[in-house]
Amino acid sequence: MQVKLCDFIDQDLKIWKAPLIYNLFDAPTALLILTTPLQPLVTEDKMIWKGEKSGKYFVRRTCRICVSEIADNSNMHVLGRWNLIWKLKVPPKIKSFLWHVCRGCFPTRARLSSRGVSCPLDCVQCNNNYEDSIHILVECPEAVQMWRDENLWDKIDMVLRQD
Q: Per-residue pLDDT averaged across 124-144, rounded?
């Protein structure tokens, strides 16, 4: 059985049907309903969800609204032109890798430790430095050798030396 709001309102008098409300709801809830003012010109009862242009309700949209309005997610907004990464003509896994590195989400030991994962902080490759994104990609001797093997180290080194 589907109950509509209009079932709880005396349409002629434009007042709540108090006995019905007290029969269906517990006393505190009934009191909240009965103290809700009614608009004088209630003409039609219809379902409306302003979260979607179509007026239809979707749980996913509700979650997004809650996250944006209730939770403080300002720390997730990082300035930058991130769409440039996604427009690159490279495989999706390269785009994802770049995005994770640039956003500071690359799962280094330092990052894992900051998220509560118990692990050593030394680099897996050279065992003598703090393993963060910068170290893994351009400071670790193993990484530098890999870039040299690919004939890319001179270009990377030149960019790193720019202020």
A: 87
Interval 34-48: pLDDT, tens: 998 887 655 666 666
Q: Which residue has the tokens 């994962």?
A: 117
Per-residue model confidence (pLDDT) at position 160: 83
Both tokens of residue 50?
Answer: 């302003």
Helix axes 141-149, 153-161, angle to 10 degrees: 120
Could you tell me the sign of the dihedral formed by the alpha carbons of 159, 83, 75, 120, in that order? negative
- Tokens 């995005």, residue? 99
pTM: 0.48
Query: 36 with 60, same domain?
Result: no
**Do the beta carbons of residue 156 and residue 147 sit within 8 Å?**
yes
Q: How many distinct structural domains can be found in the chain? A: 3
User: What are the percentages of helix, strand and coil residues in the chain, rounded to 5?
Assistant: 50, 5, 45
pLDDT bracket for residue 27 (50, 70, 90): very high
Beta strands in 15-88 (DSSP E): 15-16
